[in-house]
Structures are given as C-alpha cells and as structure tokens.
Write a structure and sequence with these properties.
By secondary structure, the chain is mainly beta. The chain contains 4 helices and 18 strands. The chain has 3 domains: 2-33, no CATH class; 41-159, no CATH class; 162-268, no CATH class. It has helices at residues 97-102, 198-202, 207-215, 220-236; strands at 2-5, 8-11, 20-21, 32-33, 45-52, 55-65, 71-77, 83-89, 110-116, 122-130, 141-145, 152-161, 167-172, 177-183, 188-194, 241-248, 252-257, 264-265. A hairpin with a 5-residue loop joins β9 and β10. 13% of the residues are buried.
Length: 268
C-alpha cells in the first residue's frame, strides 16, 4: 500500500482489517486508506433456548459448507443429546454433468436426514429432486425413501410447464393428474383442477374466460367481475374438484375457494 500526505510517503503497510489514516496530515492533503472486504458471511451456528417454568431446553444447530459456499451439512443437537443430521448433495456430488454445464451448482438434488443418540446413523428421510426432462432445466419429479427401506419411490411427477417456467400439470403418487390454470398475465395460479390433464382443463367451459377476467382485474369492480367468472367456471364443471384463487397487488392471495365450498376471503 502506498500513499502520501504533503509529500511524505507511507510504504509497505500490511493489511490489518482496520482503516489507516496518515497520523501527520498537512492542511492541504489527508489521505485515508480503508480496506475493501469481499466474500460471503455464512451462518455457522444457531442456538435456540426454550423456557418451560424452571426447565430450560437448548437446541444447537451447526452448519458446514462446501468449498463453493453451498450448505453441506446441518447438525442439530438437542438438550438430551439427540443428534439430527441433514446432508445436502449437489450436481457436482452426483456427477450431474448436464446441470453443471448449465451452472446449476447451488440447487440441492438430494437431501438425506439421519438421527441418533450419539451418531446420526438412523435414516429418517431421503428426498431426491430429478431434472430428467431434456427439454428444460426444471424439476421433473421428486422421489423419497420410506423410513423402513432404501427403495426410492416417486412422490410427484411434474408433467408440463409453460414457456415462463410455470407448472401446468403434475401427477401425484396415486397417479391422479392435477392441472393448474395461470392468470394475471401468467404470474399466478387462479385455478387447480384435480383428475384432469392441463389440456383437458383448458377445454372446460369458462377456462379461457377466467384467464381473461384475471388479466383485467385492476380494481374492486373488475375483481368482482373476475370472481363472478370463477363462480360460473365452478358451476359449469361441478363434477370436478376445483379450487380457485384471487389476488391483489402487493398483498398476495385475497381469497381461496376450495371444492364444493363457498369462497373464503383471507385477511389483508
């Protein structure tokens, strides 16, 4: 580091983490050198203390990270000494070249939880997120292992997305498809229809109208028009399990209407 104050040189200062100011500045010049600290600050431990009368319970969670900064392992130790360890694996851990080439290195693909009294060696859960659809880089399915076995089972399959990455259809573990209709300029789901595909959902009476009315929802009057369109959509397709949603800007969901029930407004 090199600086000057009224012609005096300051040479060879080592970085100490503190700002440096020439101790004898002239009235004309006063150079101040401040360190520039870069990098990430990562949480390494949390301690949660709960009080129950005269009894105190302390739960400590320690975090370790990979060389590239992703969360690697979190270890939670309870007051009675029980240890729960969660292990995160990423594309480079699983040699997923496709995701690595896309730069998707910070997305956990596998999350495994183990527990034990001294060593966390008893499996609790294991979840894997697959990206097997070669047409995009969005999740294609989620697998999980039961507590009693190591065989992975498909919990949900993501069948279809739109060009913006919105999920249009998924299939549950029991094989039942669920369609999602998006509105408000394709930014929010306005209807969930069970036991139909997305193409079938968009062919239902009133499906196009609720999308149009949601796009036009800008005030109380247009919102009421949109709600009327949703009511008509449900009444026109009474044989189906339909859940509908309305929203307000900067607020979020303002109402949810589950199947076969009246509209439930949410406090805002």
């Amino acid at each position: 580091m090199l600086g000057c104050a009224g012609g005096d040189l300051v040479i060879g200062l080592s970085y100490t983490g503190h700002s440096y100011s020439n101790p004898a500045p002239t009235t004309k010049y006063n150079f101040i050198f401040s360190p520039l600290i870069t990098g990430k600050r990562r949480l390494i431990r949390t301690v949660d203390t709960s009080y129950f009368g005269n009894k105190t319970l302390v739960e400590r969670t320690d975090f370790t990270y990979t060389d590239t900064g992703e969360l690697d392992i979190s270890t939670t130790t309870s007051s009675d000494g029980k240890i729960t360890q969660t292990d995160y694996d990423y594309a480079y851990d699983l040699s997923n070249t496709r995701l690595l080439n896309k730069g998707m290195t910070g997305v956990p693909l596998s999350i495994e939880v183990n527990s034990g009294d001294v060593i966390a060696n008893t499996p609790i859960s294991h979840i894997e997120t697959k990206y097997d659809n070669l047409e995009n880089f969005l999740p294609s399915s989620i697998l999980s292992a039961s507590l009693s076995g190591s065989n992975m089972e498909t919990e949900v399959t993501y069948n279809k997305y739109d060009s913006k990455g919105n999920l249009l259809q998924y299939t549950k573990k029991d094989g039942i498809p669920v369609a999602l209709i998006w509105g408000y300029g394709s930014t929010k789901p306005i209807a969930k229809i069970e036991n139909v595909t997305y193409d079938q959902a968009m062919s239902l009476i009133g499906s196009g109208d609720i999308v149009t009315k949601s796009d036009q929802d800008i005030n109380i009057a247009t919102q009421n028009t949109f709600i009327d369109a949703l009511d008509l959509f449900r009444k026109s397709n009474t044989r189906l399990m339909i859940t509908t949603y309305t929203y307000d800007p900067l607020i979020g969901v303002t109402s949810i209407t589950p199947p076969f029930r009246h509209q439930r407004s949410l406090p805002v």
